[in-house]
């Protein structure tokens, strides 16, 4: 069996924090330290969260923990069980109400965060004429944060329809960091806004909210609507392709008789080093905390890797770039997704 692993995978963004000329830290400037008892939070309105799957569940949990205790978190997912578990888990931090539709969440919330698997789900959440976001009464000041990894065209269509209906402000804010980062509240965010929080009140509002779910040092404002997604898709493209390359390199190195730990150390000390090598190593026993060393614990399903690489391939082709590496990788990952032995496992 191929040792290719599709793991909790995303690389860190290591560029300097926004506006490094300031003498204040980014947390000091925007008051995004983790909340403590008695902390004053600027935004007091209710928040909605749509999509409480593996990532959304943990992100919504952090929102409830860090948003004002007097405000209500409104949640919706097709899984009522997941909603109830979340309510039971974080209800002690403040009110949590389970809604019956995206429309209901929207009507009760000043900020709505969405985290769904694919573009088709995002379209249903936002554009459904009976139960979607656009079916709700519009509020030009309502903020929508789309955290899903979806295609850029769908993102822009949703944003344009939100704007045309005067239903609110739509920003693509995809995340990186996997389930671990979602649970810890240390996600990276890539935001489709042209100006950062020091220049744009909307970006400042976005920044303050996503600090509940992510690290301030790992928040970037990338440009116009859709550029956050472009940045995220590019990141995933690199990370997933790198995982497959590491698997193949380790496989032939070990077959030649090189000790797996020695081979890892050689690569780590040389130009082949990467975040994936240290965090999602494909060989059991090399990195104690990697999924491969923990029974190949599932952190990112193979079918989702196929989706993300496909988004990269499509994005590249749309601007005239031949995604040769992605085409090779998606064929490999599709085999993993189709194999009953690996469809729900990363071994």
TrEMBL record:
GO biological process: L-valine catabolic process
GO cellular component, one term: mitochondrion
Residues forming the catalytic site: 232
Boundaries of every 3-hydroxyisobutyrate dehydrogenase-like NAD-binding domain copy: 226-338
Organism: Exophiala dermatitidis (Black yeast-like fungus)
A Pfam match: NAD_binding_11
Name by which UniProt lists this protein: 3-hydroxyisobutyrate dehydrogenase
Tagged with keyword Oxidoreductase: yes
